[in-house]
Write a structure and sequence with these properties.
By secondary structure, the protein is α+β, with helices and mostly antiparallel strands. The protein has two domains: 97 residues, Serine-tRNA synthetase, tRNA binding domain (Helix Hairpins); 305 residues, Bira Bifunctional Protein, Domain 2 (BirA Bifunctional Protein, domain 2), CATH 3.30.930.10. The strands form five sheets. Strands 1-11-12-13-16-10-9-4 form an eight-stranded mixed sheet. Strands 5-7-6 form a three-stranded antiparallel sheet. It has a three-stranded mixed sheet with strand order 8-14-15. Strand 12 and strand 13 form a beta hairpin. Helix 3 packs antiparallel against helix 5 and helix 8 crosses helix 13. The two termini are 51 Å apart. The model has no long low-confidence stretch (mean pLDDT 93).
Length: 421
């Protein structure tokens, strides 16, 4: 959500930020609705004053033995009007709906651009493996091993699901344990076990609702399946005033994630790149505004470190304004090298959301020696997704006979297994 005070102070700057996102100006509409809302609030206060005066007049009339029927009727009309206006103000009107549908304003150092072609490469790590044979894609390797079953998954659930068996199922489990161990022991994140079903308010708080409901799965009793554990982890700070001395809060969780992949028809139809259900280890930080940029760099380095330990080549890019997520003010994507595709593919996205999510979920902090009124900054990143990391291991560690070497750091989690095949 956006700061209405900042828009009042400089509507042109707000419109300039939206323009970088490819959106038309909205400040005039926002300020018009803001003026209407403030008029309603003034009317509400005046009506309350009149109601109090009317109640006093009714009391005086009764004390004198006078007929108070007309006064009581007027008082009831006032109460009904106040109740209706109070409901309107409490639920949020057109102003809140408009602001809730507008994305975060990009940070000043984010490159301008229309789409992924305008993203900027920041650094590259690792050497791409060289093969004496034509490298295969992960689904070719997995199916040939008899350990990756798309047909069986389709019979059970339809497209964009996968059944893993044997050593590949164990490899997926090993990755989750490996990531959590390093996120907690080495990087200082607190492991959290979170609900997989959330209410509207939680999905609204992180920006999934109201605009992106079609990207989620919803139960028949109005819960949403989480698209990422960012949603419950970040909402741990909702409706709270945190002590500055306890910040930053750093959380990690490894959960199933559920996405409808609306609009993804024809994209990555083969394999495990784009699934309705997958496991992901998430990183979430809740911190003060003056520390959020440093926390963003730290989080990205934590995700990079996991790929380095696995020996997987990657590059880091900063997303342009046209490719950023709705809630983000700045995002780094980490793209891992996939030899079978001869391309880099996203494996982690680390975003600084500033105070955008905090305003939506009313997450504040109390400065040392001060009052609790300033919004925290929230950050989230993949650290890392299990499925896409498994894909990268299969393609980078494949051998000519179709077997796959197990990265050395994962062997303690795999019963010392060195090769899958």
């Amino acid at each position: 959500m956006h700061d209405i005070k900042a828009i009042r102070a400089d509507g042109e700057a707000f419109d300039a930020g939206l323009a970088r996102r490819g959106l038309p100006p909205h400040s005039k509409a926002v300020l018009r609705l803001d003026e209407e809302k403030r008029a309603q609030q003034t009317e509400f206060q005046e009506l309350q004053t009149r109601r109090n005066q009317m109640a006093k007049a009714v009391g005086q009339a009764k004390a004198k033995g006078e007929d108070a029927a007309e006064l009581l009727a007027t008082a009831k009309e006032l109460s009904d009007t106040i109740t209706s206006l109070e409901k309107t103000l409490g639920e949020g009107g057109e102003l809140e709906k408009l602001l809730a549908g507008l994305p975060n304003i990009p940070a000043g150092d984010v490159p301008d651009g229309k789409d992924e072609h305008d993203n900027k490469e920041l650094r590259v790590w690792g050497e791409k493996p060289k093969f004496s044979f034509a490298p295969k894609q992960h689904f070719e390797l997995g199916e040939a091993l008899g350990l990756m079953d798309f047909e069986g998954a389709a019979k059970i659930s339809g497209a964009r699901f996968t059944v893993l068996k044997g050593a590949l199922a164990r490899l997926e489990r090993a990755l989750g344990q490996f990531f959590l161990d390093h996120n907690t022991n080495e990087f200082g994140y607190t492991e959290v076990s979170v609900p997989l079903l959330v209410r509207d308010a939680a999905a609204f708080g992180t920006g999934q609702l109201p605009k992106f409901g079609e990207d989620l799965f919803k139960t028949t009793n109005d819960f949403w399946l989480i698209p990422t554990s960012e949603v419950p982890l970040t909402n741990l700070a909702a409706d709270s005033i945190l002590d500055e001395e306890k910040l930053p809060l750093r959380y990690t969780a490894c959960t199933p994630c559920f996405r409808s992949e609306a609009g993804a028809a024809g994209k990555d139809t083969r394999g495990m790149i784009r699934q309705h259900q997958f496991y992901k280890t998430e990183l979430v930080s809740i911190t003060t505004p003056d520390q959020s940029e440093a926390e963003h760099e730290r989080m990205t380095k934590c995700a990079e470190s996991l790929l380095q330990k696995l020996g997987l080549p990657y590059r880091v890019i900063v997303l342009c304004t046209g490719d950023m997520g709705f809630s983000s003010q700045k995002t780094y994507d980490i793209e891992v090298w996939l030899p079978g595709q001869n391309a880099y593919r996203e494996i982690s996205s680390c975003s600084n959301c500033g105070a955008f999510q905090a305003r939506r979920m009313k997450a504040r902090y109390k400065a040392k020696g001060g009052k609790g009124g300033e919004f925290v900054h929230t950050l989230n990143g993949s650290g890392l997704p299990l499925g896409r990391t498994l894909v990268a291991i299969l393609e980078n560690y494949q051998r000519e006979d179709g077997s796959v070497a197990v990265p050395e750091v994962l062997r303690p989690y795999m019963g010392r297994l060195e090769f899958i095949g």
